[in-house]
Amino acid sequence: GAVVSQHPSRVICKSGTSVKIECRSLDFQATTMFWYRQFPKQSLMLMATSNEGSKATYEQGVEKDKFLINHASLTLSTLTVTSAHPEDSSFYICSASHPVGTEAFFGQGTRLTVV
Amino acid sequence: AQSVTQPDIHITVSEGASLELRCNYSYGATPYLFWYVQSPGQGLQLLLKYFSGDTLVQGIKGFEAEFKRSQSSFNLRKPSVHWSDAAEYFCAVGGPGNTGKLIFGQGTTLQVKP
Lengths: 115, 114
Prior knowledge:
The complex is a heterodimer of chains A (115) and B (114). Chain A has 115 residues and is mainly β. Helices cover 0% and strands 53% of the residues of chain A. Chain A has strands at residues 4-7, 10-13, 19-25, 32-38, 44-51, 57-58, 67-73, 76-81, 90-97, 104-106, 110-114. In chain A, a hairpin with a 2-residue loop joins strand 7 (67-73) and strand 8. The model of chain A has no long low-confidence stretch (mean pLDDT 92). Helix content of chain B is 0%, strand content 56%. Chain B is built from no helices and 12 strands. Chain B has strands at 3-5, 10-14, 19-21, 24-26, 32-38, 44-50, 56-58, 64-68, 73-78, 87-95, 98-104, 108-113. In chain B, a hairpin with a 4-residue loop joins strand 8 (64-68) and strand 9. Chain B is globular. Classes of the chains: A mainly beta (115), B mainly beta (114). The interface between A and B is medium-sized, with 24 and 21 residues.
C-alpha cells in the first residue's frame, strides 16, 4: 500500500522556538495533503489542507501565521509551528490523498511537547 | 452541520466475544465512510471504507461494517475479538472527490479482557 512518512515522530522544544514537521508521500505523488491535530484522549481535528504549489486552506479558528504550511513538491508538505507555546503541545498527523483511488493515507504522527 | 458521533467512549469485551462499535453521521452530501484504528502514539490504519454499492463492507483483520442510510449509521463489527484488537477506533466521513478531508468521531477505546 501507499506509504506516508512523517518526521520527526517526537520532538521537544522550548517555548518561543519554532518547530518544523515534515510529511512525505514515499511512493506516490500527492497534490493534496492534510494536517490534523489530536489532543490527548480526543479526536482528530482538521487544521488545514495543503495544496502543492499554492497556499494552504486553513480551517476556521486555526491561526495561519502560527501554523505555517508549505507544499513545495508533490511528495512533501511541511508544518511549522512558530513561536511555540505549551498549549501547542499535541499530536500532529498528516495525510496525503492518493491520485488513484479514493482514500488518503496517514503518517505515523508527530508528538510535539513544548516546555 | 456535518458531524460524526460515536456514542460509546469506552468499551470492554472479553477475548473471543463479538464486538459492535456504533457510528452515526450527519452529512449533507453523499457520505464516504471510514473506520480507522489507532494504537497508542501511532498514526491511523484504515480498517474499511464505504463509498457505494453493497452496504455490508468487509475490511482487514476480520472487521466488517454495515451502512444504513435510513439510520445514518455505519457500525463496525467483529465476530470474535482478539487481545490485539485493543486500540482506539475512529469513524470518519468525507465527501466524493475529497476523501482526505475527513470529519472524525470522538473515538471509542476498546479494551479486551483475557
